[in-house]
Design brief:
Blueprint lengths: L1 E3 L2 H13 L4 E6 L5 H13 L2 E6 L19 H10 L4 E3 L3 H4 L18 H4 L3 H16 L3 E5 L3 H13 L5 E5 L19 H4 L4 H14 L5 H12 L5 E10 L14 E10 L2 E10 L13
Parallel strand pairs: 1-4, 2-3, 2-5, 3-4, 5-6
Antiparallel strand pairs: 7-8, 8-9
Helix pairs in contact: 6-7, 9-10
């Protein structure tokens, strides 16, 4: 695996690989890799000849009182894991390489960024869109692989690619979970043992809502209430949101219709740690009497 630190070097490598007819997959990360990240690298290797993993803790997607300075970092371990899991290149730029003196541009995606995470982290998605565009322009991938855990972010990236004509296929890989259902995240390391033992409540709340949908519940507010009640069984939890929405655009109708794909979105504070998660489920078609008439 080759480590590349400059944008110009990365662009040259990407151009050379294109001239060779090689298909490239990009896996953007902020490092402190876990099995979720590694599954994205492996997925990229399945889909392309070359995998470029990026490792950049992006300051522009952190708010003023968020955890940029304490975000976990272990670069040597990350290098080793990338290499062992099939990454051909690690793009590892410094902050001043990505944002040199005089840099003052940003990308704003409207609509899907204005609720849920956008409400609680108002500058976050502009920072994500801007850095992802820069990574795309640096690495020129044919495919980019993202994890479903950051569901709203995946909608943002798809919109970015479509609106700005990047010509990149976006692949969303399933969330990788711990044994108790907690979505793998670099921030899970912030949880002290006594709170980590309670973090599975998010998955429990998700499963309660999915069970209700399977039994015929289609009322959005009742689904939201089911998730809220389940989460509140843990006294230390503070809920930013637990909400059901249309998966493709995050619209929130009063009643979901048969065949609708619905995303169950969560963001909670457990102690000092903020955790997000989601699950996509389809509203079942109701059976009528004709379904039970045998020919």
């Amino acid at each position: 695996m080759e480590i590349v630190k400059s944008i110009s070097d990365m662009q040259k490598i990407a151009k050379d690989n294109k001239l060779k007819g090689l298909k490239t997959a990009l896996v953007p990360t902020m490092g402190y890799l876990h099995d979720g990240h590694l599954s994205l690298i492996r997925k990229g290797k399945e889909l392309a000849d070359i995998v470029i993993t990026t490792l950049f803790v992006n300051p522009t997607q952190f708010g003023p009182n968020e955890d940029f300075d304490k975000y976990p970092r272990d670069y040597e371990r990350d290098f080793k894991l990338c290499s062992e899991n099939g990454s051909d290149y690690l793009f590892f730029p410094e902050v001043n390489e990505m944002y040199p003196i005089g840099f003052n541009s940003s990308i704003i995606i409207k609509g899907i960024t204005e609720k849920f995470e956008g409400q609680f982290r108002p500058t976050h998605f502009s920072g994500v869109a801007t850095v992802v565009a820069k990574l795309f322009n640096s690495c020129s991938p044919d495919i980019a692989v993202f994890g479903q855990k950051d569901y709203q972010q995946t909608l943002l990236i798809k919109k970015l690619v479509k609106d700005l004509n990047f010509g990149i296929d976006i692949v969303v890989a399933p969330t990788v979970r711990e044994k108790d259902g907690l979505a793998m995240s670099s921030r899970n390391t912030y949880l002290p043992p006594e709170l980590r033992a309670k973090a599975g409540v998010i998955f429990y709340a998700m499963e309660q809502a999915k069970s209700a949908i399977a039994k015929g519940e289609t009322d959005r507010k009742r689904l939201n209430s089911i998730m809220m009640v389940a989460l509140k069984t843990v006294a230390e939890i503070r809920i930013d949101y637990a909400a059901a929405a249309i998966a493709s655009n995050l619209e929130e109708p009063d009643i979901f219709l048969p065949g609708d794909e619905v995303v169950l979105l969560f963001a909670v504070q457990l102690g000092k740690t903020r955790l997000i998660d989601n699950s996509v489920v389809k509203i079942p078609y109701k059976l009528n009497e004709e379904n039970f008439i045998k020919s």
